Predict the 3D structure of the following.
Amino acid sequence: MALAIFDLDDTLIDGDSAALWNEQMGRLGWVDNEAFLRRSEELMAAYSRGELAMDEFMAFALEPLIGRTEEEIEHLVEPWVEEVIEPLIHSDATRTIAQHRSLGNRILVISATARFIVAPIAARIGIQEVLAIDTEIAHGVYSGRTVGTLTYREGKVTRLMQWLKEQGETLEDASFYSDSRNDLPLLEQIARPNAVNPDPVLRAHAEQAGWPIHHWR
């Protein structure tokens, strides 16, 4: 069974779910809205340049969750996904997923965003298997720390290889769809790499390598 692997942010959806969740925390009154969102924008700009230290971003983004329960966050994330994220899902993405399903491919989302955000968004698109940044729950509440290898840049390769071994799968004839230069380490491991609405660095690389370039809306 060949794998069809999808990045989430700016690939399956028109936007970055982590940044959008940060905005939601501002609306909830969990943060100093102006200062927090200014810092969020600075960190997301570093991500776009390929310069983000993901552990720094995660410490920043998880701080407002410290002491909150999984149930509280799940209760708030679900309606947010419905109201904010669902309208941003690319129809071209859902068609491509359906095409892979018709071929009998196994569908996986791999994202450099926290699992509590990624999993419900993927589920909304009909995808149950997810690799994302895992967050620590200590004494029943969020600790503000991450667990294991972060699914970012080379970390996506590491986590995917671990998952393949656990699942008894291979990358033979696998496809991967992404928008970002940060995913070049994984794209270069894949038989069928695809650039989706690519950033300038990924676009140039895809053009030189002869990879398909998709314009999803």
User: Anything to note?
Assistant: Strands lie at 3-6, 106-114, 130-138, 141-147, 175-178, 192-196, 213-214. The first strand starts at residue 3 and ends at 6. The CA atoms of residues 111 and 194 lie 16 Å apart.
